[in-house]
Design brief:
The protein has one domain. Helix 2 packs antiparallel against helix 3. The protein starts with 17 loop residues before the first helix and ends in a 21-residue tail after the last helix. The radius of gyration is 16 Å and the shape is elongated. With 81 residues, it is an all-alpha fold. 44% of the residues lie in helices and 0% in strands.
């Protein structure tokens, strides 16, 4: 079993992959993380602070692997005639 690490997602991203990476780490859908981030940005946390946190995570959280799905096979297939 591989150890879970926080990373930015390469496959599930809109801007920097931060929310997608957090969702992969927590095992929840990315739209939930994005919705929570939007709510926290609008309601209790000032916009400047939440943008600063996102930019810092974008800068310092490493980018993850291309795919986390173990069922995805990177191979070339040739058709036999």
């Amino acid at each position: 079993m591989t150890e879970k690490t926080l990373h930015r997602s390469k496959t599930n991203k809109i801007l920097g992959g931060v929310c997608g990476g957090i969702a992969e780490y927590l095992g929840i859908p990315a739209w939930v993380v994005r919705l929570v981030w939007i709510i926290l940005t609008i309601v209790p946390v000032p916009l400047v602070i939440s943008l600063l946190v996102y930019i810092l995570m974008w800068a310092f959280v490493p980018e993850g692997p291309d795919s986390l799905d173990p069922n995805v096979i990177d191979a070339e297939f040739k058709v036999k005639e």
